[in-house]
Amino acid sequence: MNNYQSKIRDLVYVALFASLISVSGYISIPIPPVPVTAQTLVIMLAGSVLNVYQAGLSVLVFLFLGAIGAPVFSNGAAGIGVITGATGGYLIGFLAGAIVISLLKGKKNNIWRLAIANFIGGIIVVYTFGVLWLSFAANMSLIQAFTVGALNFIPGDLAKVALAAIIGFKLNDRLSKIR
Length: 179
Fold this sequence. Notes:
Layout: H1 3-24, E1 28-29, E2 36-37, H2 39-49, H3 52-67, H4 80-84, H5 88-104, H6 111-137, H7 142-149, H8 154-176
Antiparallel strand pairs: 1-2
Helix pairs in contact: 1-2, 1-3, 2-3, 2-5, 2-6, 2-8, 3-5, 5-6, 6-7, 6-8
């Protein structure tokens, strides 16, 4: 594959995953202050399937679209105020989480490694950014922020880790034949 084809493939993957992250924000259960969305699953999939460059850029495109007013955040929210608001740490955590997952997944398609990468990047990294920012933005203690912004979400996110590992494993197997 030549460099031009490689760049086109990168752009297609970035656009596809930025779109999937955006659309998955509409699959949501509003639980204040942090809604449950399918975005975390798609972030995990982005890290599981894409290389570091593609994963990071797809989340950056998503964040940029939301910052300039496209209704891509959970339940169609938009604007820089969402990023600087109480849930903004989770959004920035999406960027770090997707990159960490992509870095940790390794070169070989291994379902267990994907599960561990998704747990670390998709839960630990995203929650760290989210809870720390929630604590600051909402003037809560870290314990309070963890209780309302992470504790109730752990079981669902563990299920997303398993689902992302399975789907990512299958996608990587299929994509290895056409890459």
